[in-house]
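Researcher: I'd like a candidate sequence for this fold, 702 residues long. If you have to choose between options at a position, lean toward the conservative one.
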């Protein structure tokens, strides 16, 4: 069949009746004749251009009919204009061609055309190769079942925060570690796993390296889920804290907070070893790297850090460096950060403060680590408060308890030093604590910080109670706190603290020289605390826009729209909202008593009623933005206790990557549990494991 006659043949005889070889021959011989097609376009005469065949690889022509057709639609059937009748007019030809190129029928025909001839490849595979592929896939299925069991063990141990490895993992060991012991327990009920553990010489899946790889792969799939979540949200806030783990390595945690539809989530991103560089620029570099990695630069609305000056410093802290790149990112106080903890952390640069905090901690450490010593306090009728990163008022409670039971505590440590039956370490430590209770500086700071904590505890509790619902009241409380701390900055207060210290311990003396020394330190401490408050709450007035969604004010807003707060919102987040539409949506909500709900309930109502896309899209964005701002929800610091628990189980040689990966499994155990319910979860982890490096076990189907 001649090439130029193919279209005429197909139009008259059809394509389906041809042999396989004839069909392939036609596929390779698309006719592209020059056609004598013209049309009048104003004063111009347009003619058919042969280069249109290159522009549209599916375009063909018929000399006999002097028309153009769609080659694939002629073969498989499609729009009559392109598959049967043909086009003889080239007026608006290019527009018609581009429209046809994206039509559903044409795309379907293009796929059939592309696959024509390829589907027959299976018919030429030798029977031997086919059987080999079948056998390979059977083995892959078995291997994937085995790896699935190992993944289940990894998820279980990770969620339960249990150690993976034992000290001795040979066959004679009575405790080979939780990972091996749990696999062997499962093998008692599963013959396939039992045979594998007993007989496999190439890949057993029990080595330290394989365990690490599986942990990383599960974490990778978990992080992919979080990444996909983040890409769908409008706003993200960053929370970061720095602490020292049990192996004396400084760790920084990073958490992203955002709203998925109507649900607030805080996702743990990881622990980052900052032992070698704890400068503001070093910490900021890590945070900026994570911002880029997770692609949230255009979503960040606020940041919050702990009280260390390197984190929150006004002109050189991390928050300042982040705002150099993301200027609309507010720096706010996260209400999960207890105010005492934040302010003390910031004041730790003062040696006396750091020493006082350490001494407070030492009293708890001494009595809590021995049942005999704990019982000694119980006999005195009290106990020291538990130290915990999640007990925000630990320092204030510890100072209050030591002050209240000063004499009893003094008698208790004296008993340890003087009575027989106590070990040398207890006696030595008790002697040091006794000296502290007779130390003029320690007792003075006990009184001074007791007064400071009285004010800061009140403000913290108020902020927790009011959250962001009443910004003006919160600002007023913060101003009162600064005033109260300023009122302590005088000679009278210093003398009063000295006198109260003497009432606690009449063996103490505070001469004029000592009082002047304490006066200088006191003023330095109070100045540091006030500076910390100014920095931490500098952006607080900018949050006044949050009251736009304060449901308690909706009735008054219906009468008088909150214009000033509305303008602050638009100024803080320009080009974020459709101002006119948002104003009207809010007016409708203010007018309806049924919608006078807190932001999270209002958002829940809007989304569950399917009103978020067409009716209240701007109010939806506003509620999501407000809820993304860290308020009363526990955040970064609760993760630090997880860090210390997990680190206890790890060997000192374990890498920080494994620490962060294991922490992700433990901290995000709820998310991991939800993901594990999806049948594709394990397959995704296995695929990640197979792609990570060349394995000595086949895991990919042919």
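Model: Candidate sequence:
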């Amino acid at each position: 069949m001649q090439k130029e006659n193919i279209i005429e043949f197909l139009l008259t005889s059809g394509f389906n009746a041809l042999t396989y070889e004839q069909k392939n021959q036609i596929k390779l011989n698309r006719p592209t004749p020059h056609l004598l097609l013209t049309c009048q376009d104003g004063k111009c005469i347009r003619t058919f251009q042969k280069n249109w065949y290159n522009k549209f690889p599916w375009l063909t022509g018929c000399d006999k009919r002097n028309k153009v057709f769609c080659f694939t639609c002629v073969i498989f059937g499609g729009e009559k204009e392109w598959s049967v009748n043909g086009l003889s007019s080239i007026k608006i030809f290019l527009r018609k061609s581009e429209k046809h190129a994206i039509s559903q029928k044409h795309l379907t025909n293009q796929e059939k055309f592309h696959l024509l001839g390829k589907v027959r490849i299976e018919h030429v595979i030798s029977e031997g190769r086919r059987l080999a592929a079948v056998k390979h896939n059977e083995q892959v299925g078995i291997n994937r079942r085995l790896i699935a069991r190992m993944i289940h063990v990894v998820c279980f141990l990770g969620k339960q925060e249990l150690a993976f490895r034992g000290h001795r993992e040979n066959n004679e060991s009575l405790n080979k570690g939780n990972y091996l012991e749990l696999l062997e327990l499962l093998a008692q009920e599963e013959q396939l796993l039992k045979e594998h553990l007993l007989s496999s010489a190439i890949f057993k899946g029990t080595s330290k390296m394989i365990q690490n790889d599986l942990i990383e792969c599960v974490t990778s799939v978990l992080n992919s889920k979080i990444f996909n979540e983040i890409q769908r949200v409008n706003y993200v806030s960053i929370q970061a804290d720095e602490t020292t783990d049990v192996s004396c390595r400084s760790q920084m945690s990073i958490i992203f907070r955002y709203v998925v539809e109507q649900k607030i989530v805080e996702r743990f991103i990881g622990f980052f070893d900052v032992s070698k560089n704890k400068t503001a620029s070093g910490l900021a570099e890590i945070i900026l790297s994570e911002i880029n990695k997770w692609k949230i630069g255009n979503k960040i609305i606020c940041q919050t850090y702990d009280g260390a000056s390197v984190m929150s410093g006004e002109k050189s802290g991390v928050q300042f460096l982040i705002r150099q790149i993301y200027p609309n990112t507010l720096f706010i106080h996260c209400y999960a950060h207890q105010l005492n903890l934040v302010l003390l952390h910031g004041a730790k640069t003062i040696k006396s403060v750091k020493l006082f905090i350490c001494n407070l901690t030492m009293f708890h450490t001494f009595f809590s680590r021995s049942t005999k010593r704990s019982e000694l306090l119980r006999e005195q009728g009290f106990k020291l408060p538990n130290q915990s990163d999640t007990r925000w008022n630990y320092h204030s409670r510890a100072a209050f308890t030591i002050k209240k039971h000063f004499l009893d505590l003094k008698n208790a440590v004296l008993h340890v030093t003087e009575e027989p039956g106590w070990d040398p370490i207890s006696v030595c430590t008790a002697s040091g604590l006794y000296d502290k209770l007779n130390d003029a500086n320690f007792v003075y700071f006990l009184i001074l910080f007791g007064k400071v904590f009285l004010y800061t505890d009140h403000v913290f509790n108020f902020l927790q109670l009011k959250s962001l619902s009443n910004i003006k009241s919160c600002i007023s409380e913060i101003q009162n706190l600064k005033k109260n701390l300023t009122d302590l900055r005088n000679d009278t207060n210093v003398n009063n603290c000295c006198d109260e210290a003497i009432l606690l311990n009449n063996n103490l003396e505070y001469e004029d020289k000592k009082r002047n020394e304490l006066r200088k330190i006191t003023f330095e401490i109070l100045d540091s605390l006030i500076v910390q408050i100014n920095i931490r709450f500098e952006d607080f007035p900018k949050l006044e826009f949050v009251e736009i969604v304060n449901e308690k004010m909706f009735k008054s807003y219906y009468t008088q729209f909150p214009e000033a707060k509305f303008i602050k919102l638009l100024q803080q987040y320009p080009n974020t909202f459709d101002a006119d539409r948002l104003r009207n949506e809010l007016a409708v909500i203010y007018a309806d008593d049924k919608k006078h709900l807190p932001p999270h309930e209002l958002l829940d109502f809007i989304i569950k009623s399917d009103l978020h896309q067409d009716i209240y899209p701007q109010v939806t964005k506003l509620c999501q933005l407000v809820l993304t701002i860290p308020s009363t929800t526990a955040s970064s610091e609760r993760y630090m206790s997880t860090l210390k628990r997990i680190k206890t189980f790890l060997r000192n040689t374990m890498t920080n990557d494994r620490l962060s990966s294991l922490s992700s499994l433990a901290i995000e155990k709820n998310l991991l549990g939800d993901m594990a319910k999806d049948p594709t979860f394990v397959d995704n982890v296995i695929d990640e494991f197979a792609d990570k490096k060349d394995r000595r076990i086949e895991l990919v189907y042919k």
